[in-house]
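Risk register update: the risk of archive-format incompatibility is retired. Evidence:
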Amino acid sequence: MTDAPLVLCADDDEDILSLVSLRLRRAGFEVATAADGDEAVTIARARRPVLAVLDVMMPKRTGYEVLAALRADETLREMKVILLSARVQEGDVARGMDAGADAYLAKPFKAQDLVSAVQELLAN
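Archived output:
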């Protein structure tokens, strides 16, 4: 068992999931991965991560729907959430923030920017 904070990463793109997982592990986090929104909710409820990195466009449940499920769950509603999306129009970002996201990163993103966002959210 590790004392490293657990971060949930959910994305249907295996390459992005691998990159994000690798970079977060190198930064000292334990990482749980999900390939779709349903799996993300299941893992979140079972493992209680401190933060979730969610792709907006995923099968079964979108990042917005996963975020809504987390915010509706009394034991998970304080979890920090970062949304990732190629949709970066002002309205898309506003929708994510209005839905309760703590941060919204545009794809493509620099892995170090994501790690920095995770570290910053967990420091506050």
